[in-house]
Amino acid sequence: MGPDPSVTKQKIKAGTAKRIVPYTRPYRVSICLLLLMTVANAAIVVAVPILFKYLIDNGIAEHDSDVVVGIAVAVGGLAVLGALLGFGEAWYSARVSEGLVYELRTKVFDHVQRQPLAFFTRAQTGALVSQLNADVVGAQQALTSLLSTVVSAALTLLFVLITMFYLSWVITLISLVVLPFFILPGKVVGRLLQRLMRSQMEQNAEMGALMNERFNVTGALLTKLYGLPSRELRQFTKLA
């Protein structure tokens, strides 16, 4: 009952990224704005702890109320700015992702419609429907939420390392020494999740194909005449 090796061992074909890029061209401005907001949010993540350091060292420790008030106002302003940037990220991410879903679905639908009749005698209806639904949404998430998450994490890591070197290079070097112990398990789990996701999408397509074939008039008629309910149930149960 484990994942099918023929599915989980597959790799992304060369040239896939080049085929995806043209779909993002109409959204270049939105993607650039999304990335700029991500950079600003990563900078805010680092700026707030530094302000707290100056608040403690130069304000509270020195009993300087002007510094305390000034830094408190700055931190509050950064919090408001971070909230606005978060709203902007969500807005542009949704704008790009929904536009990509629309483009991909219409392109796939048009491509499938133009296939010869022989194609439909070989293809599984459920698999085609799954590609128009689940697979397209997966591509949408990869180009929007995943992109912004990866960029945000990378920039936050870079800014934090620069700040840590500025504050204490010794502690930073110690942190870098233990960093591989966190990265290696993440890479192993990431590969496993990738294989499981691919297997999940394939099995959902097979289950959708089975349901589409059995629940239309022709399929139901054939099942009633020549099939066995127990055998159909066993086949569906295996996929489910």
Compact overview of the structure:
The protein has 240 residues and is mainly alpha-helical. Helix content is 88%, strand content 0%. It has two domains: 12-178, ABC transporter type 1, transmembrane domain (ABC transporter transmembrane region fold, Up-down Bundle); 179-240.
Q: If you had to describe this structure to a student in words, what would you say it looks like?
A:
With 240 residues, this protein is an all-alpha fold. The chain folds into two domains: 12-178, ABC transporter type 1, transmembrane domain (ABC transporter transmembrane region fold, Up-down Bundle), CATH 1.20.1560.10; 179-240. Helix content is 88%, strand content 0%. It has eleven helices and no strands. It has helices at 5-8, 16-24, 28-60, 65-113, 117-122, 125-143, 145-167, 169-178, 180-215, 217-226, 229-239. Helix 7 crosses helix 8. It is elongated and about 90 Å long. 10% of the residues are buried. The model has no long low-confidence stretch (mean pLDDT 80).
Total domain units: 2
Strand and helix order? HHHHHHHHHHH
Number of strands: 0
Number of helical elements: 11
Classification by helices and strands: mainly alpha
Distance between the termini: 11 Å
- Give the class-level CATH name of the largest domain: Mainly Alpha
Give me the Rg, rounded.
Answer: 26 Å
**Beta-strand percentage range:** under 5%
Largest sheet: none
Overall mean pLDDT stands at: 80
Any idea what the shape is? elongated
- Could you name the CATH topology of the largest domain? ABC transporter transmembrane region fold
As a percent range, the share of helical residues equals over 70%
**Poorly predicted parts:** none
What do we call the CATH homologous superfamily of the largest domain?
Answer: ABC transporter type 1, transmembrane domain
